[in-house]
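To: structure desk
From: M.T.
Subject: fold request, one chain
Message: Could you run this one when you get a chance? Sequence is below, nothing fancy, just the single chain.
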Amino acid sequence: MKLSVPSRDDILALDRRHVWRPYTSHEDHAERDPIVVAHAEGAWLTDVDGRRYLDGVGSWWTNNLGHRHPRLARVIREQTETLLHSPLADATHAEAALCAEALVNVAPRGLDRVFFSDDGSTGVEVALKIAHQYWHQNGRPERTRFVSFGGAYHGDTLGAMAVGGVESFRSAFGPLLFEAIHVDPPAPAEAWSRAAESLRARLKADGDRIAAVIVEPLVQGAAGMRMWPAELLREVRAITREADVFLLADEVFTGFGRTGSFWAVDQADVVPDLLVTAKGLSGGILPFAATLATERIYEGFRGGKARALLHGHTFCGNPLGARIAREVLAVYRDENVLEGIPERTARIRRAFESLPGARTPRALGMIGAADLGAGDYFAAAGRRVADEARRRGAYLRPLGDVVYVAPPLNISIPDLEKLLEILRDSVAAAASS
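Reply: Done. Structure tokens follow.
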């Protein structure tokens, strides 16, 4: 028997009655008219009425290979025939082991251990706990503090939020957060030496109490796609190495080719002590994440049950996620995904440099951004552009006054040009309205 498909009105009524949407005010939930997605393929979303929209933000920066990539859809079907879930405590399975090997093979040299989790925030939490517990049980228990850049975003769980620096997101939760150290922000790029000096001074003064420095390599995403140079990342690595403080690279957004290289740290020839990956890791299909660590860190947990990493969750290393992640890596290799990025980057850069009224246009890899004003996350200029873009057939989700695109890495050139044309027209229309 064929199941009936609820109408758009029915879906919205149920959504408004029961769903609590992320980063959505109650007023917007009740009054704004969202896209009701029914189907997605490649770079396109299709709503229940059959209207198509270019997915200009990769469905929250995660859909790097486009929707319903045939190889990923195939391995999901295949995996459902054998193993859907298994624990990784007193048990293991082939997919977790093979996925870990595949990740180590593409990771910066020296990151040889993989701890699986379910999303970027959790992956960051794992990394923070690893760094803290390592020092706690290896003769430096006073190393309990973490350093991050101003403007950082590392997730929405409490530990990840504590090391974040976007006040719009974290201010309400201040009493719940542990105290982190926020040094000068790394952007604008021409001011990067100030950020390096701020970090150097802090580690010189407090290095004996610091467990790790955490960074979003080359791009602070939620802060407004603030881009910073590889020279600063190399300097950060040198500063942390001199102080024997761990460097934690949050590559949840920047990894898997988003900045043009497989890992953003590759552009600085830097190997962090810990690296977190999610989003593109599963091709934007399932919640799946991993925290990679050096052998030095792994060895610091030997010595009995009480020294084991005290973290875990039900779906750690889930076979479906692990199988998809392994296929994602194979697709990158077989389809030469990274090789197609430079041409697309050039087109994105030209488009943003020609946006009417835009300030500080910038591009890196498959990210383009520009400021339309100086407001924070709650500013309205970007939303006006997004509304215009939707009318023209594109889905954008600006960050306050910052408009940006982060489409699938393999978006076709015609689709990319159409997306950028819609962006230009939308910015112009919003400015004149």
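Reply (cont.): Residues 141 and 208 are 10 Å apart (CA to CA). Let me know if you need anything else for the meeting.
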